[in-house]
Write a structure and sequence with these properties.
Blueprint (H helix, E strand, L loop, with lengths): L4 E7 L6 E7 L5 H11 L3 E2 L5 E2 L1 H12 L7 E2 L19 E5 L6 E5 L7
Antiparallel strand pairs: 1-2, 3-4, 5-6, 6-7
């Protein structure tokens, strides 16, 4: 049995980040391989032909539309992380949230739930 496997490496034209992937199956054009390797991994080919990695795409989206924050989450480290304090109830005194695009993170002192 003979299987042809093509290994393709793409390089981000913005930051230089590289991604290598294997494309198996029948021979494909360079354009088909480029689409297969980049689209699956969140890369984009810009209208001007430049390749952007998923981090550069996310950074551009956040710069244009703002961050896509999740809700604040209570930290569960019980004060074991540097700069985290322990609250009176023994829980960590920090909350955190992150941008769903994956590049940005924020922390704040824990906010206690309001009593109804």
């Amino acid at each position: 049995m003979f299987t042809l496997i093509t290994r393709a490496t793409v390089v981000c034209d913005t930051c230089g980040n590289q991604h290598t992937d294997e494309v198996d199956g029948p021979p494909q054009s360079s354009e088909q391989i480029l689409r297969a390797v980049t689209l699956v991994n969140g890369w984009q080919q810009r209208p001007n032909g430049l390749l952007w990695c998923s981090n550069c795409v996310a950074q551009a989206l956040c710069g244009t539309y703002g961050h896509d924050w999740c809700q604040w989450i209570s930290c569960r480290c019980k004060g074991n992380k540097p700069k985290h304090t322990v609250a009176e109830d023994g829980a960590c005194g920090s909350d955190h949230r992150y941008c769903r695009r994956g590049l940005h993170y924020e922390a704040r002192p824990r906010m206690l739930a309001e009593v109804a």
